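Pinned message: reference record for Guanidinium exporter
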Amino acid sequence: MAWLYLIVAGVLEVAWAFSMKQSEGFTRLAPTLFTLVLMAASFALLATAMKTLPLGTAYTIWTGIGAVGAFIVGITVLGEPANAMRLLAAVLIISGLVLMKLSST
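Predicted structure (C-alpha coordinates):
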Protein backbone atom coordinates (compact mmCIF):
# COMPACT_ATOMS: atom_id res chain seq x y z
CA MET A 1 0.00 0.00 0.00
CA ALA A 2 2.88 2.39 0.74
CA TRP A 3 3.90 2.45 -2.92
CA LEU A 4 0.34 3.26 -3.97
CA TYR A 5 0.18 6.10 -1.45
CA LEU A 6 3.51 7.38 -2.75
CA ILE A 7 2.42 7.32 -6.39
CA VAL A 8 -0.84 9.13 -5.61
CA ALA A 9 1.12 11.66 -3.52
CA GLY A 10 3.36 12.26 -6.53
CA VAL A 11 0.41 12.74 -8.87
CA LEU A 12 -1.10 15.19 -6.39
CA GLU A 13 2.22 17.05 -6.38
CA VAL A 14 1.88 17.53 -10.13
CA ALA A 15 -1.71 18.73 -9.64
CA TRP A 16 -0.77 21.26 -6.96
CA ALA A 17 2.16 22.54 -9.02
CA PHE A 18 -0.20 23.12 -11.96
CA SER A 19 -2.82 24.80 -9.78
CA MET A 20 -0.09 26.96 -8.23
CA LYS A 21 0.82 28.13 -11.73
CA GLN A 22 -2.86 28.87 -12.34
CA SER A 23 -3.04 30.89 -9.10
CA GLU A 24 -0.75 33.51 -10.68
CA GLY A 25 1.42 33.95 -7.61
CA PHE A 26 -1.45 33.23 -5.19
CA THR A 27 -3.41 36.20 -6.51
CA ARG A 28 -6.42 34.14 -7.63
CA LEU A 29 -8.47 32.70 -4.77
CA ALA A 30 -9.88 29.46 -6.23
CA PRO A 31 -6.61 28.10 -7.64
CA THR A 32 -4.81 29.17 -4.45
CA LEU A 33 -7.24 27.24 -2.25
CA PHE A 34 -7.10 24.25 -4.59
CA THR A 35 -3.29 24.35 -4.39
CA LEU A 36 -3.35 24.30 -0.59
CA VAL A 37 -5.80 21.39 -0.42
CA LEU A 38 -3.79 19.37 -2.95
CA MET A 39 -0.55 20.14 -1.10
CA ALA A 40 -2.01 18.95 2.19
CA ALA A 41 -3.28 15.73 0.61
CA SER A 42 0.04 15.11 -1.14
CA PHE A 43 2.04 15.66 2.05
CA ALA A 44 -0.33 13.46 4.07
CA LEU A 45 0.03 10.58 1.61
CA LEU A 46 3.81 11.05 1.48
CA ALA A 47 3.94 10.93 5.28
CA THR A 48 1.84 7.77 5.29
CA ALA A 49 4.12 6.13 2.72
CA MET A 50 7.17 7.11 4.79
CA LYS A 51 5.91 5.02 7.68
CA THR A 52 7.23 1.95 5.86
CA LEU A 53 9.43 3.21 3.01
CA PRO A 54 12.92 4.60 3.55
CA LEU A 55 13.13 8.41 3.59
CA GLY A 56 15.56 8.63 0.68
CA THR A 57 13.50 6.34 -1.52
CA ALA A 58 10.11 7.89 -0.71
CA TYR A 59 11.24 11.49 -1.08
CA THR A 60 13.19 10.82 -4.28
CA ILE A 61 10.27 9.02 -5.91
CA TRP A 62 7.80 11.71 -4.80
CA THR A 63 9.87 14.58 -6.13
CA GLY A 64 10.72 12.65 -9.31
CA ILE A 65 7.07 12.00 -10.10
CA GLY A 66 6.39 15.66 -9.43
CA ALA A 67 9.27 16.89 -11.58
CA VAL A 68 8.57 14.68 -14.58
CA GLY A 69 4.81 15.08 -14.23
CA ALA A 70 5.08 18.87 -14.10
CA PHE A 71 7.40 18.73 -17.11
CA ILE A 72 4.83 16.70 -19.07
CA VAL A 73 1.94 18.98 -18.02
CA GLY A 74 4.01 21.99 -18.97
CA ILE A 75 4.57 20.63 -22.46
CA THR A 76 1.11 19.20 -23.11
CA VAL A 77 -1.10 21.76 -21.37
CA LEU A 78 0.93 24.95 -21.14
CA GLY A 79 2.76 24.72 -24.45
CA GLU A 80 6.25 24.78 -22.96
CA PRO A 81 9.14 23.75 -25.25
CA ALA A 82 10.13 20.09 -25.61
CA ASN A 83 13.65 20.17 -26.99
CA ALA A 84 16.11 17.29 -26.99
CA MET A 85 17.99 18.40 -23.86
CA ARG A 86 14.81 18.74 -21.79
CA LEU A 87 13.54 15.35 -22.99
CA LEU A 88 16.88 13.72 -22.16
CA ALA A 89 16.77 15.27 -18.70
CA ALA A 90 13.30 13.78 -18.13
CA VAL A 91 14.51 10.37 -19.31
CA LEU A 92 17.43 10.56 -16.89
CA ILE A 93 15.10 11.45 -14.01
CA ILE A 94 12.84 8.51 -14.87
CA SER A 95 15.88 6.22 -15.08
CA GLY A 96 16.90 7.35 -11.61
CA LEU A 97 13.41 6.65 -10.27
CA VAL A 98 13.44 3.14 -11.72
CA LEU A 99 16.86 2.46 -10.19
CA MET A 100 15.70 3.83 -6.84
CA LYS A 101 12.66 1.52 -6.90
CA LEU A 102 14.76 -1.49 -7.93
CA SER A 103 17.25 -0.81 -5.12
CA SER A 104 14.52 -0.68 -2.45
CA THR A 105 13.70 -3.74 -0.42
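Pinned by admin. Summary line: The chain has one domain: 2-103.
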